[in-house]
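Table S2 (text version). Query chain:
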Amino acid sequence: MLAERYFEALFATLRTLRESQLESIDQAAAMVVESVTEGGVIHLFDTGHMLEREAVHRAGGLVMVTPFHFALDLSNPARPRPGDAGASADDVIGLVRYALASSRVRSGDVLLIGSVSGRAAVPIELALQARALGVKVVALTSIAYSRLAEVQHSGGKRLYEVADLALDYVGPIGDAALEVEGVETGVCPTSGIVAATIIWALTAQIVERLLSKGLTPHVFRSVNLPDGTAFNDRQRREYERLGF
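Corresponding C-alpha cell output:
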C-alpha cells in the first residue's frame, strides 16, 4: 500500500529528527526560558503551512506562544503585466520594517520563523531586522532543501544562515516523500507533521526547563472539558502577570 510507504518514510524522518535535532531543540528552549523569565515574549511567524494553527491557543500548548503575522493583500486583476518582477528588495525591507515597528516585538524576545525552503525574501528579511533589534531568532526550516533552492533575498543568504539557531525539518528535497510511478512529481510531504513535532518537542523542553527553576508554565486546557474555558481564562491572567 502506498499509505504504508508513507508511514515508513515519515517514521524514518521522525527518527532522524530525534537523533539529530534534540540538542538544538533544547538550545531553543533555553533561549525561550531565558527570555520569558526576564520579561520577554515568544513570537511565532510561519509562511503558511501549519505552525500558527498548530501551536497557538491549543489544548496542551503554552499560553506564552504569540502569533506574529502580517500581509499585504492586493486584488487588482485589471490587465496582465508581462515581465512584471513584483516587489523590489527595498519594498520587502520597508514592509518588514513597518511590521516590526507596528508590532509588540521587543529586544530580548524570541521569534520563531517557519519556512520549509527558507529562500523567500520576507522571512529572511524579518530574521535580519529582528536580530538587529536584539531579538533571538530560531528558524524552522529544511536545511538540505534550502541549500538547493534559489534565494529570493538580495543578501544571498537563506533563513537558516541568518538565524541565531536553526531547527532542521530533515525532510526530502522538495518536501514530498514518495516517488510514485505514473505521477510526474513527488507526493505526500513530511514538513507539516515534522513542524508540529518540533513545536511540541520544544514545548516539552520549555516546560521541563521552567519546572527545573521552580516555575510553573501556563498551559491551555481543552475548552471541551467542563471547566476548560474558566481554566484558560485563569491561565491567561496568570501569564499576563508572570510572563510564562
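Notes on Table S2: The chain has one domain: 2-69+88-242. The beta strands are 42-46, 65-67, 110-114, 136-141, 165-168, 176-178, 187-189.
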